[in-house]
Structures
1.
Amino acid sequence: MKVTDILRVKGNTLYTVNPDELLASAVKTMAELDIGSLPVMEHGDLVGMLTFREVISAVVANGGSVGERRVRSVMDDAPLTCTPSTEIDEVRRMMLLRHARYMPVLERRELMGVISFYDVAKTVVDAQDFENRMLKAYIRDWPADGGGAASGS
């Protein structure tokens, strides 16, 4: 399974922020849209990632408020990225190693979407559930004379 499978399910809606936008405005957008991250775009290029982790750190550093800070001053300017063709197992490994909850998906330099650790976990669980259902159906339909199942005699 690949990242493109997650993006297909998530749809095309993508919200971004400019690095010179006020952090307070970006945080308001995140709260209103109930999203945990915003890719930071400048001149059509991904230049960073703003997640609740950076927001919380900025609030703590500023005594409980975001103040007049700009997104650029708190964003992760080297976010972990993947491509639509990256395997889900590889994404899961990368996210675990970097403790990343969100990952922008780039095809060449174009931002295709953002996947979350939740998206990856849900995809893995759904795939396992499907496999389990198929195995149970196979076992239930096991041929009586097939020699694979032990007889009760």
2.
Amino acid sequence: MDPRIGTHYNNSSFGYDGYCLPKDTKQLLANYSAVPQNFIYAKVEANTMRKELIADEILKLKPKVICVYRLIMKASSDDFRASSIQDIIKRIKAKGTPVIVNESALKDVEFYSSKVVNDLDAFKRDPDVIIANRTTDALADVAEKVYPFDLFGSDL
């Protein structure tokens, strides 16, 4: 209820990500490996487990093709360095399910050996499941296929 914090922190994503936080937590873990504690280890491990759980939940749907809508970490960004969705893509591909990526900030035709399709209409034709970090009007016409982690639909 504290207005300085608000409820937006409760809108979890596919795990904490970005360039700094994952690197920094792993560095803290290494720096304090000789100090008896489990808080930092638990945070790093919980983030890894969350991504594994999400990949497993998606694969339980038995999709033939999975599409990933945007690699970015948050709305209004084009930064996808170390985004959590990349780890989920790796886990899904390791289980043998093809992944197609839609990322306007990416100009390559492949990402992690997955086809990149930036024509949104063509992208939406193939998938059984579309993984989207946040809810967006661009996917409203295929909402039944979307696996989002924007719990409250608040990050449009």
